[in-house]
Write a structure and sequence with these properties.
Number of helices: 12
Bound molecules: guanosine-5'-diphosphate, magnesium ion
Structural class: alpha/beta
Largest sheet: 10 strands, mixed
Radius of gyration: 22 Å
Strand order of the largest sheet: 9-7-5-2-10-1-11-15-19-20
Oligomer: single chain
Number of strands: 20
């Protein structure tokens, strides 16, 4: 069985916490795209953890974790993440963490280029996390990236790097007038941070194929959400990889298998990090209240996230792009302070009402049309069954279910593992 857990919105929906919960019933958890440009926060009996690169299944003993070929991996960052877990008593070994030989390495010069370019853009910046993600995915498609498997053949790697570094310096030195990068410098970094990971590198596609054929259950964990997908998201304010469920078997290395189930993680309100159109954005005191209630500060960067009411137009599009079979609705408890809850039910674009998510200039001009539903104004974080929820909260869940056209099967009411309700 192959299940994907993906984001319906802009990311930070709570995918990590749902993977942490559901991985109990799975043998393998696979991250299949992205790098350390986002974070998954998991709160469970072992403590509170922020994972940027490692699959959230790493916190469950008995689960094998795979970092797939669709990922871009900053080795220095990964070493740090593994160290933090080991310090907290979590075991990370080649047995429970396997890294694809085809995953791409995010090098220090990718971070450098990300920074140089954001600085050059000034006020027109993309709001990049400056972790090198766009430059390294760019290199992947330019066929000038270094892959994990190359760590096992340093002589060949050095030879390839010579050509790559020459080419990079055309931009670094010629374009940005920055100090040249050197083959020795890159090789030294690769040795320092690559050596401890070598034993984890293998053909993870072959491994997953064998696991699937042996009847094992595999869970795919996405990063970010549908609206940040490189093809279907709010281009160019997207990430540089495919965040959708359909990409999971590809980014994991098993395109010969089909997904059995797609679970979309959808937040009870909206939040987004970075630049670009965000139709439902709340400003001033209203926005600040929601941001504080939801603790909306980036897990990877600490940046305050932009926030707003639930967006039915964007979320219904997200449900479609993710091919969601069911939904986990997260952070419902955050809305408990509101006496009436705004919900964006449609957009107005150039005087026309629409419920289909627009692209490009039309999205820039879209204005939200709100309806208000009654709030519940009481603490629901202790609720564990539908019967425990106030009627207004159940009504809100059903309202969203209708609006996005997909069954909500889980609702979370707090960050801790057990704070959820099965619908
Ligand atoms: P991800 O990137 O989709 O994994 O989500 P993040 O971890 O970046 O953001 C979700 C945040 O909300 C984290 O800080 C979680 O601990 C927290 N969280 C998750 N579920 C709930 C919930 O039901 N209620 C509350 N109040 N917080 C939650
Ligand atoms: Mg996140």
């Amino acid at each position: 069985m192959l299940t994907a857990i993906t984001g319906i919105n802009w990311g930070d929906e709570g995918k990590g916490r749902m993977v942490d919960l559901l991985s109990e019933n799975y043998d393998v958890v696979v991250r299949y795209q992205g790098g350390n440009n986002a974070g998954h926060t998991v709160v469970n009996p072992r403590g509170k953890f922020i994972l940027n690169l490692l699959p959230s299944g790493i916190l469950r003993s008995g689960v094998v974790n795979v970092m797939g070929n669709g990922m871009v991996i900053d080795l220095e960052h990964l070493n740090g993440e593994i160290k933090n877990l080991r310090d907290a008593g979590v075991s990370v070994t080649p047995e429970n963490l396997k890294i694809s030989d085809k995953a791409v390495i995010c090098l220090p010069y990718h971070k450098l280029l990300d920074n140089l370019e954001e600085d050059r853009l000034g006020d027109a910046k993309f709001g990049s996390t400056r972790r090198g993600i766009a430059p390294v995915y760019g290199d992947k498609y330019m066929k000038r990236a270094v892959r994990m498997g190359e760590l096992l053949h340093p002589e060949d790697l050095r030879r390839r790097l010579e050509g790559i570094v020459d080419w990079k310096n055309l931009t670094v030195v010629g374009g940005y007038h920055s100090d040249p990068i050197t083959v020795d410098g890159v090789m030294e970094w690769l040795e320092t941070y690559g050596a401890p990971l070598r034993d984890h590198v293998c053909d993870t596609g072959l491994y997953l194929d064998q696991m699937e054929k042996a009847g094992k259950k595999i869970l795919f964990e996405a990063q970010l959400g549908a609206l940040r997908d490189i093809d279907f998201g709010i281009y160019p304010y997207t990430t540089s990889s495919s965040t959708i469920a359909a990409y999971a078997p590809i980014g994991a290395g098993i395109p010969n298998h089909k997904l059995s189930k797609s679970i979309g993680i959808m937040k009870a309100y909206s939040s987004c990090v970075g630049e670009g159109p965000f139709t439902v954005e709340l400003f001033g005191e209203e926005g600040e209240k929601l941001r504080q209630a939801g603790g909306e500060f980036g897990a990877a960067t600490g940046r305050p996230r932009r926030v707003g009411p639930f967006d039915c137009v964007a979320s219904r599009y997200g449900v479609r792009m993710q091919g969601a079979d069911e939904i986990a609705l997260t952070k419902l408890d955050v809305l408990s302070y509101l006496d009436r809850i705004p919900v964006c039910v449609a957009y107005e674009v150039d005087g026309q009402r629409t419920t289909e998510f627009p692209t490009g200039a039309a999205l820039d001009r879209a204005k939200p049309i709100y309806e208000y539903v009654p709030g519940w104004q009481c603490d629901i974080s202790g609720c564990r069954r539908i019967q425990d929820l106030p009627k207004a909260a159940v009504d809100y869940i059903h309202f969203l279910e209708q609006a996005v056209g997909c069954h909500i099967s889980y609702v979370s009411v707090g960050a801790a593992r057990e704070q959820y309700i099965v619908m």
